[in-house]
Amino acid sequence: MGHIDVVAERTFDEPVLIEGLPGVGLVGKIVADHLVDALDMELYATVHCDALPPAAAYTGGDRAVTTPVRLYAAPDADLLVLQSDVPVSPDAAEEFAGCIESWFREASVTPVYIAGLRREDGASGRSGADAAEDAKDAEDGTAVGETRSPTLRGLAVGDGAALLDRIDVPAPESAGLISGPTGALLAHAMATELPAVGLVVDVDPQFPDPTAARVVLERAVEPITGVDVDVDALTAQAERIQRAKEQFAARMSRDDEAVSQAQRLRMYQ
């Protein structure tokens, strides 16, 4: 039986949870990892679920091991982050959602799920230097590079729409489908009437995309949560982040079904 083991007592007032499961462009994972580091978030709980791969995670300079999926809490805000060091297969996602759903309801948590939408601008084979240059272009708040400008779209389940109503994130312009574990979690939220938000952002499908992660942080996470996040470090470290995540992305690419992604739907597919 799955459960959440709380390791640091905290009280929350209808917190928002940012999901960081690995997906296309690793945008959700980059967002989650950056939030944990930038806000100096504390380990709040470990997630135990039979659907998760049996593994033990550890960090540098610490002998302790922990679960590969964990919850972190911001020190001065009603903000939680779901950080994952392993992909969750779609077959396991429903059970995984069941492991955490009861706690979501008990703590009145509204999850924000993040999915990358493969860009169709023809960009491919981008290097780490390209990613760093894209991030540099984003510093002035204008276009992100000459050939790309990640767009962000918002989806909602139930009362999750109220969060999107407060910020300037439009609905999708065309039909689409979110697959992988994030799609399964959104489907579970819909089936169980759990309020939730889905964010869909254009990403580079071949490389980890810290620039898309910055768009999510600035245009959605900050206004939804009211928490200021230092994204300059994300920009400055874009090339290092891209290289550090490439090996992880390569492992995930061997099993597309375990990768969360959004895709456009067209007539006569």
From TrEMBL:
SUPFAM superfamilies: Cgl1923-like. Gene3D superfamilies: PAC-like subunit. Residues 121-146 are annotated as: Disordered. Keywords: Proteasome. The keyword Isomerase does not apply. Pfam families: PAC2. This is Proteasome assembly chaperone family protein. It comes from Halobaculum lipolyticum.
